[in-house]
């Protein structure tokens, strides 16, 4: 059971970092609105991903959705890194939206 512990704890750590970055970089007057969108994305995102992965696996192959998802994540992060200066130079001590 101990061998799976890091995998069950990692979403909690990820949530702490995401929430901290979002709240520290968001102006006070926008924080409530952004928290609502953030909650919606966290609630609906995995369900939509499950549906998309299921359809893709049924149409193509069972191995295709995780491979395609991993490649898509690498492409999106690479594009953000290449085109967004603020993404490259994010400073947690002085966050700028």
From TrEMBL:
Look up and give the organism this protein is from: Microbacterium rhizosphaerae
Please report the name of this protein according to its UniProt entry: MFS transporter
InterPro entries, per database record: MFS_trans_sf (IPR036259)
The protein's matches in SUPFAM superfamilies, at most eight in alphabetical order, are given as: MFS general substrate transporter (SSF103473)
Q: Where are the transmembrane segments?
A: 59-82
Query: Superkingdom of the source?
Result: Bacteria
* Taxonomic lineage from the root: Bacteria, Bacillati, Actinomycetota, Actinomycetes, Micrococcales
Q: Which UniProt keywords apply?
A: Membrane, Transmembrane, Transmembrane helix
């Amino acid at each position: 059971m101990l061998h799976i512990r890091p995998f069950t704890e990692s979403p909690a750590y990820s949530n702490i970092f995401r929430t901290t970055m979002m709240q520290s970089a968001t102006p006070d007057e926008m924080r409530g609105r952004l928290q609502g969108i953030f909650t919606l994305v966290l609630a609906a995102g995995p369900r939509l991903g499950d549906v998309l992965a299921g359809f893709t696996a049924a149409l193509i192959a069972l191995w295709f959705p995780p491979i395609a998802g991993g490649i898509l994540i690498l492409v999106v992060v690479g594009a953000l890194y290449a085109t967004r200066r603020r993404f490259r130079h994010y400073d947690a001590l002085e966050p700028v939206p």
